[in-house]
Automatic annotation (TrEMBL):
<protein>
    <submittedName>
        <fullName>Thioredoxin domain-containing protein</fullName>
    </submittedName>
</protein>
<dbReference type="InterPro" id="IPR008928">
    <property type="entry name" value="6-hairpin_glycosidase_sf"/>
</dbReference>
<dbReference type="InterPro" id="IPR024705">
    <property type="entry name" value="Ssp411"/>
</dbReference>
<feature type="domain" description="Spermatogenesis-associated protein 20-like TRX">
    <location>
        <begin position="5"/>
        <end position="166"/>
    </location>
</feature>
<dbReference type="InterPro" id="IPR004879">
    <property type="entry name" value="Ssp411-like_TRX"/>
</dbReference>
<dbReference type="InterPro" id="IPR036249">
    <property type="entry name" value="Thioredoxin-like_sf"/>
</dbReference>
<dbReference type="Pfam" id="PF03190">
    <property type="entry name" value="Thioredox_DsbH"/>
</dbReference>
Length: 694
């Protein structure tokens, strides 16, 4: 370690390495820091963030790179820096502190702890001096240190109360009331009350995709024919894709919009957002018949393959918001930038200027730069610039190509190249489903390659480790995975099974679910703990029931168990029900925070649509059957494949395969609803009629 490096220089995390040359005497979370705090009787300053976080970068520049501020931090505290993507268990526990203090959570998260890890004060970003009514970070440091020194009794009492409350909040919520067939209607009524019927999405600003809530509305629109729910999803998907939250040159979605119109985003791109939105746009295309949503899905996958895929075949975690020390600089455009990019192609210049709304004034933080969005349709643009629509479309494509080439020459935002199991699993499942739905077999192949990379490096005896770094052949054992890693990877295995018919994926999902139940289930109270039973001892072992930017690990665990119970071994279903049934009333009352739980509850109450394909899975008819199934949006669906020549294919899915044989050498399909099955059909038209019967 050089004189200019702190302890973080030995870490693997790109986020921690970003802070390795700070003058702050940072420790990673671990025994060394905790023991020093106890030995010297100093409070711990815990700072949690992630590599693509804009305000984390701001606080680093303003405070952690400031010699005077760093000196006081080093004198008064034991300073610990944590990557929330490495340690979501720590982030989950200590985010609750800010919320319990009546503030909004977020990153950077700044928490002050006693030496035994109990929190007594917390916030998020603090400026370097008093500003906008927020005390400056130096003043916070002095006040906290003084309170710990002079009012120790009060501090310890508050820390004890907050810790007790964290334990209570982190328990499984239970409401009153029976679950019924009306749960979707009740949940969607609450969602629609929060829906922005002008701009799409929920609430005002900032505006996040809230994918799980849109999933719930799409369920109701499809299963119960509710036109308002359907229209709401279509509006949200359309507005997001036309807004600045979508990268109109490369594809892919930024993390969220700072305004209500989806116009100006925070520019980081997260793998999980793009994985969730890929599946939602494909579902939207199938349910609503909008070809533009399929085009969005294809552009999104093209972006992921071009910029986010590792040599192993798996996918990186994030791309940063900042480049050259400025947020969004890589992505925004001035008229001069456009002119330089397209050269003397006047048609391309005019069409891009009008279509994307690039102006002298700009729309981005009074910089004169413009965040690209679809300000006008190409047809209206054509009319304004006096071109035929086809000519304008060609000019726009030329402009896009040249603008992207010019943008590629700019200094790029950094990338967090961790390969996270959970986020990769979200994308693997989405790629498998989307590849079938849009007839893109190469996507299914890419999903299989990514899954093989995850399985080889991260899965041991059914347990999923958290992440690996590029070039690693195996992640260290201490990178234990959390509930979301287990549940998401198990679910991805089932999605790959449905897309490929390979029974090995069912065996992988079963092994992961068994290990998940062993190490995460609360055998006394029911439900799943976020951290495993052999993980670090923290002040609380919480249950991950609320959706954040990703679906709740607990709800995904329940879904995995239910799906396994439906197709292979009914014993799994009881574990899923023990998680999901108690939180039903709470989920219906708060669907914006528990959207994934609502969807899983509806699956439990409504039952499934099961399609059993019997015959040679590589044969023409079996593949035609599969196309008919995947082309449709069929909520709560199972697809299983039985090859009469291979008994192991029926054994893998014995719950659904029992009693379903072929007719001679013919390939047949069965459609079952709530375990009541049709007679076998041997032509696509008959299968489609069964699928559409509802």
């Amino acid at each position: 370690m050089s004189a200019h490096e702190n302890r973080l220089a030995k870490e693997k995390s790109p986020y921690l390495l970003q802070h390795a040359r700070n003058p702050v005497d940072w420790y990673p979370w671990g025994a060394e820091a905790l023991e020093r705090a106890k030995r010297e009787d100093k409070p711990i300053l815990l700072s949690i963030g992630y590599a693509a976080c804009h305000w984390c970068h701001v606080m680093e520049r303003e405070s952690f790179e400031n010699d005077a501020i760093a000196a006081r931090m080093n004198e008064l505290f034991v300073n610990v820096k944590v990557d929330r993507e490495e340690r979501p268990d720590l982030d989950q526990v200590y985010q609750l502190v800010v919320q319990l203090m009546g503030r909004s959570g977020g990153w950077p998260l700044t928490v002050f702890l006693t030496p035994d890890q109990k929190p007594f004060f917390a916030g998020t970003y603090f400026p370097p001096a008093d500003k906008y009514g927020v005390p400056g970070f130096p003043a916070i440091l002095e006040a906290v240190a003084d309170a710990y020194k002079r009012r120790r009794g009060e501090v310890l009492a508050q820390a004890g109360e907050i810790t007790q409350e964290i334990t209570r909040v982190g328990a499984l919520p239970e409401g009153e009331g029976a679950l019924g067939q009306d749960l979707l209607r009740k949940a969607c009524r609450r969602l629609l009350a929060r829906f922005d019927s002008h701009n799409g999405g929920f609430g005002a600003r900032p505006k996040f995709p809230n994918t799980m809530s849109l999933d719930v509305l799409l369920l109701r629109g499809t299963l119960e024919g509710d036109a308002v729910s359907k229209e709401s999803v279509e509006l949200a998907l359309d507005k997001m894709q036309k807004g600045g939250i979508w990268d109109h040159l490369r594809g892919g979605f930024h993390r969220y919009s700072t305004d209500a119109r989806w116009l100006v985003p925070h520019f980081e791109k997260m793998l999980y957002d793009n994985a969730l939105l890929l599946r939602l746009y494909v579902d939207g295309h199938r349910a609503l018949g909008n070809p533009r949503f399929a085009d969005t899905a294809r552009a999104l996958v093209a972006y992921l393959f071009a910029e986010m895929r590792d040599a192993s075949g798996a996918f990186y975690a994030t791309q940063d918001a900042d480049s050259e020390g400025q947020e969004g600089k890589f992505f925004v455009w001035k008229l001069g930038d456009l002119r330089a990019a397209v050269g003397d192609d006047h048609e391309a210049y005019e069409v891009a200027r009008v279509h994307f709304g690039i102006t002298e004034e700009g729309n981005f933080e009074e910089t004169g730069a413009t965040v690209l969005s679809e300000v006008r349709s190409i047809e209206r643009t054509a009319a304004i610039v006096d071109l035929a629509p086809d000519t304008a479309k060609s000019a726009l494509e030329r402009a896009r190509t040249k603008m992207l080439a010019a943008r590629e020459k700019r200094p790029r935002p950094t990338r967090d190249d961790k390969i996270l199991a959970s986020w990769n699993a979200l994308l693997i499942g989405a790629l498998a489903e989307a590849g079938r739905a849009l007839d893109e077999p190469s996507w299914i192949g890419a999903a299989e390659v990514a899954f093989a990379a995850i399985e080889e490096r991260l899965v041991r005896d059914g347990r999923v480790r958290r992440y690996y770094m590029p070039g690693e052949n195996e992640a260290p054992e201490e990178r234990r995975g959390f509930l979301d890693d287990q549940a998401y990877v198990g679910r991805a295995a089932l999605d790959l099974y449905e897309a490929t018919g390979n029974p090995r994926y069912v065996a992988v999902a079963r092994a992961i679910a068994d290990a998940m139940i062993k190490h995460h289930e609360d055998t006394r109270e029911g439900g799943f703990f976020f951290a495993p039973d052999d993980g670090d001892a923290l002040i609380a072992r919480t249950k991950d029931v609320f959706d954040q930017a990703v679906p709740s690990g607990a709800s995904m665990a329940a879904e995995l168990c239910l799906r396994l119970g439906e197709i292979t071994d009914e014993r799994f279903a009881a574990h899923g029900r023990r998680q999901i049934e108690p939180i039903g009333p709470t989920a219906i009352d708060n669907p914006l925070g528990l959207g994934k739980a609502v969807a899983v509850l509806d699956r439990l109450v409504r039952g499934t649509v099961d399609v059993v394909l019997v015959g040679d899975p590589s044969g023409e008819r079996a593949q035609a059957f599969a196309k008919a199934v995947f082309r449709r949006f069929l909520p709560h669906r199972n697809v299983v494949w039985v090859d009469p020549r291979r008994p192991e294919t029926a054994e893998a899915v014995k719950v659904l395969a029992e009693g379903k044989g072929a007719r001679g050498d013919d390939t047949v399909a069965y459609v079952c609803r709530n375990r009541t099955c049709s007679a076998p059909v041997s032509d696509v038209a008959a299968l489609e009629a069964l699928l559409d019967r509802g």
